[in-house]
Amino acid sequence: MRSKFRKFLWQWPARLAGDEGMAAVEFALIAPVLVAMVLTLVDVSNMAFGTTNMEAAVRATEQYFINGNTDTNAAQAQGNNAWASKPTGSTLTATQACTCAGAGHDCAAPCDDSTIPWMSFTVTATASLGGSVVHQTKTITQTVRVR
């Protein structure tokens, strides 16, 4: 038993000089970087996917108004139905505005020069997108003039 121990002690400096285990050390150094890159990539792809879904909801709401409808509540419902994987706490609103000669005006009454007021609808969607590493609050606002 004693001779095995001596043999081990004499081989110890040679074992330290070798490159056995270098792959494990290199992996231990690079692994955190790889994990951070993968987590960031997942979060960025979730943000891109969420933005695409949000834009689809805004387009669906605008299309409702372009088709000649004027009910903002029904338009919001249609946009919310079109918003796939809607994040918690996100909002979609649709508002109506009318103008005569560039100034705000009542939509039910004609302008002072007896013309029909310009009617426009503004659709705004807001959501918090991303994940645990990368996240942001994104707002998309688009206005469509229908008359």
Instruction: Compute the number of structural domains.
Output: 1
The major pleated sheet works out as: 4 strands, antiparallel
Element-by-element helix/strand order: HHHEEEE
Unreliably modeled segments: none
* Beta-strand content estimate: 25-35%
Class by helix and strand content?
Answer: alpha+beta
- What's the total count of β strands? 4
Euclidean distance between termini CA atoms:
99 Å
Spatial strand arrangement across the major sheet: 2-1-3-4
Number of continuous helical runs: 3
Please state the CA-atom Rg, rounded to the nearest Å: 31 Å
Large-scale geometry: rod-shaped
Instruction: Classify the helix fraction into a percent range.
Output: 40-55%
Provide mean pLDDT, rounded.
89
Give a short overview.
This protein is of the alpha+beta class and 147 residues long. It contains three helices and four strands; from the N terminus they run H-H-H-E-E-E-E.
Could you walk me through the main structural features you see in this protein, from its secondary elements to its overall organization?
With 147 residues, the chain is of the alpha+beta class. It has one domain. Helix content is 49%, strand content 25%. The protein is built from three helices and four strands, in the order H-H-H-E-E-E-E. It has a four-stranded antiparallel sheet with strand order 2-1-3-4, with helices on one face. Strand 3 and strand 4 form a beta hairpin.
